[in-house]
Amino acid sequence: MKKQQLEILLEKVRGHPAPSPGLEQYSTPAPIAADVLWFAYSMGDIAGKKVVDLGCGTGVLGIGAKLLGAEEVVSLDMDEAALAVAMKNAQALKVDIGLLTVDVADFPETADTVVMNPPFGAQAGDRHADVPFLERALAVAPFAYTFHKAETEPFVLRKVEALGGEATHRKEYAFPLPHSMPFHTEEVREVPVVMLRIRRKDPAVNYKSEGALVRAASGEGTP
User: Fold this and answer.
1) Residues 125-170: tens digit of each pLDDT
2) Are 218 and 39 in contact (CB under 8 A)?
3) Is 38:65 a contact under the CB 8 Å cutoff?
4) Banded model confidence at residue 197, pLDDT cuts 50, 70, 90
5) 178: part of which helix (H) or strand (E)?
6) How many degrees, rounded to 5, is the angle at CA 54 between CA 140 and CA 211?
7) Which of 75, 137, 185, 218 is the least buried, fewest Cβ under 10 Å from its Cβ?
8) Strand ranges inside 15-164, DSSP E
9) Which positions ≥6 away from 162 have C-beta within 8 Å?
């Protein structure tokens, strides 16, 4: 499978029928999901691995990971309606993923890799809604791929460092948000987003420093 083929398959993943503003239920666009998952695959973090999607929505990241050869995928969300759509999406694409209704903070399992598109904290009173996701991601797996608003990147990097991790790579995107919420006035607005590959630093391991944060490149190939 090539990246373009993955993107075509992920275009078939249905979004949430009634997204909640409070939960910031914006679907990850198929081209962006495919690009990030392909990069994660190229880094050796998908094929043959246990992958967890924290706050999975309708399942695009977890489904994509399974299509790229993940041994096991566990996708979790608090919204049962989103999980019902995720189940139908997985069935339509003939992939087997685990779906759990659970708060990310209560997820007890460990994994090899986390993929997630957490809330950006755009709603009033919920500025750092992505923090619980970062905390759980670094507790669950040694590697995580996570999306954040570009303007919050300095805060996110400090938080990751405080949690005992470091960002090794980054990718920038213009995240198109369609008119899916009642308060939206534009048909589509683009939000600058950064995807960070995060590595948990183990004090028992003497990691070789990778130096400056690497701007990740895109590529093609065959899993």
Assistant:
1) 456 778 999 999 999 999 999 999 999 999 999 999 999 999 999 9
2) yes
3) no
4) very high
5) strand 165-178
6) 60
7) 185
8) 50-54, 72-77, 98-101, 113-116, 143-149
9) none
Amino acid, res. 93: L
Structure tokens at 190: 């683009």
Joined tokens for residue 120? 């950006």
pLDDT of residue 109: 94
Alpha-carbon gap, residue 209 to 113, rounded angstroms: 20
Question: Helix, strand, or coil here: 179?
Answer: coil
Average pLDDT over residues 1-22: 85
pTM of the model: 0.87
Cβ pair 45, 144 in contact under 8 A? no
Burial group, residue 101, by CB count within 10 angstroms (0-12, 13-18, 19+)? exposed
Q: How many CB atoms lie within 10 A of CB 56?
A: 27
